[in-house]
Amino acid sequence: MKKIDDLAREFLAQKKIAVVGVSDKRDTGCNLTYKKFKEMGYQVYAVNPRISTFEGDPCYADLQSIPEK
Q1: Exposed, middle or buried: residue 51 (CB in 10 Å: 0-12, 13-18, 19+)?
Q2: Which residue from 20, 31, 43, 45 has the highest number of Cβ atoms inside 10 Å of its Cβ?
């Protein structure tokens, strides 16, 4: 069985991630996570059904709406 560190490394090596719960109303941990992953070169997808953009990027209503899987 793989150790949690190995699983985390494999997950982060994918370089694509969706961040659910970004907000245009207040600063949240999700907002910080989105920005940090983007700074690190990841393809980041914002998810929140209330807004259409976040940080100038498209924001998706749910995970199924993201164009890439």
Answers
A1: middle
A2: 45
Q: Among residues 68, 7, 60, which one has the least CA distance to residue 43?
A: 68
Q: Most distant CA pair in the chain: distance in Å?
A: 42
Strand partners, 18: 45
**Sign for the pseudo-dihedral over CA of 60, 43, 69, 34:** negative
Each residue's pLDDT tens digit, 43-64? 999 999 999 999 999 999 999 9
Question: How open is the CA angle 43-18-13, to the nearest 5 degrees?
Answer: 55
Does this model's pTM top 0.90? My answer is no
